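ok trying again, last paste got cut off:
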Amino acid sequence: MSDLLKILQETADPDSSKLAKILGLAVEDVEKQLHELKENGSLLGWVPLLHPSKSPSDSVRAVIEVKISPEREGGFDRLAHRISKFDEVEACHLMSGAYDLMVIVQGKNLHAVASFVSERLSTIEGVLSTATHFLLRSYKEHGHLLAKDGEAYEKPPVSA
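nice, full thing came through this time. structure:
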C-alpha cells in the first residue's frame, strides 16, 4: 500500500484505472486498497493544488503564531483541537521554539482575519499571545514551484 500512497501524493489523481496501470495491479485491487486507506483514516480526501495568483480567490491567508498555556493532563492537545475546529483555520501545528502553535487561517479580507484573531482566537482561555503574519506571495506549494526563474511577479494582493 505504500507504493499507492506515494503515487497519490505525487499525482493526486484518484482515477483507479490510471493508478492500476502505474502499479501493475488490477483496478479492483487498487479500489480495495483505496477503500482500506479511507477506512483506516490514512486517506482523508482529495485537494486540488491551485496556483494562488491564477485561481479566482479574493481571500487572504495568514500564519498565526500562538503561545498557549499547557494544561495538566492534556498538555497542548485540547486547545489545539479547539482552535482547529474553527472554519477559518486551514491548518494547526504544534511547534517547537518561540511559540506553541502555528495556525494557518484564511479569510475574505485582512479585516476578517484580524477580527477572527482578536475576537475569537485570542479570547480563548489559555491563549497567552498571538502574532499574525499575512502571506503576500507563495513561491512553492506542496512541492510545486509556482513560478519559473526570472518570471515577473505582480504586486501581492494585499499591498497598496
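cool. The two ends are 49 Å apart (CA to CA). Residues 15 and 136 are 34 Å apart (CA to CA).
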